[in-house]
Specification:
six-stranded parallel beta sheet, 2 domains, globular, 11 strands, Rossmann fold, alpha/beta, 10 helices
Amino acid sequence: MKENVSAQLINGQQIAKSIRNHIRIQVKRLDFKPGLAVIQIGTDSASTVYVNHKQKDCERVGFHSEVIRLPSNTLQEKVIDLIQQLNLSKHIHGILVQMPMPNHIDEQIVIDSILPQKDADGLGTVNLGNLLIGQERVLPCTPGGILRLIEETKIELAGKRVVCVGRSRLVGKPIGLLMLNRHATVTFCHSRTMDLGLETKEADILVVAIGKPKFITPKMVKSGAIVIDVGINRIGNSLIGDIDFKTVSKVAGFITPVPGGVGPMTRAILLENTLKLATTQFETL
């Protein structure tokens, strides 16, 4: 690990663009268009922005895309009925339900109604279970994007100390499993961790996803560490990460910005997943 140097920026925008370019080339070689369906329930403004980005990403790489927007009071059974129809569609190879969903809907039940071979977000019980046993097939998009960002540093993961601040099923747990599968030593920290700074200070690779702006300060970071900021906190008209970027970047070896780090990579991995699912389904026809 590097010591006493300003951090190198891991540019998620740039890496995501490279991934899209590669996907676009692959799509041109196919005899069909990979199809992604995104379901949005309600009118959450942040979700609408994300869904619009995903639709534009599909256009960029030559995918067929369908965005289905449902009222916030849509019954869970209606959402599942729609997913069952998409499960049967020959034009749709990947399905994603935008989160968060309204409170009356059980997110995991809805996600698990998506066929595992069409689970573009990789968050169904089958795909998460495969990750648990080391049989990685469709990776959850954000953890998959984080992995690619870390790999961009060219640092060997085996034996490294990884600390995940946050233990959600969307980010913390799956990225920890991805690191374990690559022979890193992983620690999960959360709201009941006794001395968070003591744990984070030991991390060769620090992944932070807690939703608290500028929570991680330089004294909590090991010199030369890889620091991945998953947080997106809107403060006024600005987006702020969970890490105090300006000061931590003087200690870390590598760091991701907010915005422009994990976010673009999450969407790029969604495209990769959809292409993988599409080609797999085509080969089994």
